[in-house]
Amino acid sequence: METAEYDRMARVEERHWWFRARLAVVRTFLRKYVPPGVGLDCSCGTGMTLKQLPQWVQIGADLHGLALKHTRARGLEKLVQADLRRLPVADASLDLVTSLDTLEHIDDDKSALSEIFRVLKPGGHGLFTVPAHPWMFSAHDRALHHERRYRRAELRSKVTQAGFEIRKFRYINTALFPLVAAVRLVSKDDGEGDGKSDTEHVPAGPVNFAL
């Protein structure tokens, strides 16, 4: 991502409805399916997941130094600067790896999934979130340097080819999908330039709370 996007993320991540909603879904999944243990948050960004879910993830990895700088500012120190396709982690050493809205940034996402599978213990868990529906690719995706948005069958195939057995596979934020889809369909995007992130600003208080 662009440097400015990390700065924006650090500024709004704990307040913006989208990040808070994703975290709530992830926390619910972990409580239901994954016992606390040793975990890694891949592409940890500015550190919100590490800060909020310490029972499950204690180590953060990100390719970008600025992301790690923001994470350290939260008082988190178990960090490593690394490419998700080449993690400096021993085989079969982790109980959990989270990869939240990360795979879409990577050209060779199959290698990334295989690398995550490598570092997990037998019976360990990988938790992935990605943007869906290629037809919704927009200026927001370009601003965040996304390589793709995923079709359901495509993601399922890549995950299973990496060796994973799928335990839960679902869409999230479905209640808002008609609104988001409508906005994407009517927005004019010329496909050029760096684009603009949808999460650049936090909506007004009542709107943010309602979402």
Give a written overview of the molecule.
The protein is α/β, with parallel strands linked by helices and about 210 residues long. It has a single domain (about 5-210), classed as Vaccinia Virus protein VP39 (Rossmann fold, 3-Layer(aba) Sandwich), CATH 3.40.50. Helices cover about 40% and strands about 15% of the residues. The chain has 9 helices and 5 strands; from the N terminus they run ααβαβαββαβαααα. The chain has a 5-stranded parallel sheet with strand order 3-2-1-4-5. The longest helix is centred in the first third of the chain and has 17 residues, at about 15-35. The two termini are about 25 Å apart. About 30% of the residues are buried.
In short, what is this structure?
This protein is α/β, with parallel strands linked by helices and 211 residues long. Helix content is 39%, strand content 13%.
Distance between the terminal alpha carbons, to the nearest Å? 25 Å
Stretches where pLDDT falls below 50 for ≥5 residues? Answer: 207-211
Q: Give the count of helical stretches.
A: 9
Q: Which CATH first-tier class would you pick? A: Alpha Beta
Secondary structure class reads alpha/beta
Total DSSP E strands:
5
The helical percent reads 25-40%
CATH architecture level-2 label = 3-Layer(aba) Sandwich
Number of domains: 1
Approximately what portion of the residues adopt beta-strand conformation? 5-15%
Report the biggest beta sheet as strand number plus sense, adding barrel if it closes: 5 strands, parallel
CATH topology: Rossmann fold
Mean pLDDT: 86
Name the overall outline: globular
Query: What is the string of SSEs from the N terminus onward?
Result: HHEHEHEEHEHHHH
Radius of gyration: 17 Å
Lateral arrangement of strands in the main beta sheet: 3-2-1-4-5
What would you give as the CATH superfamily?
Vaccinia Virus protein VP39
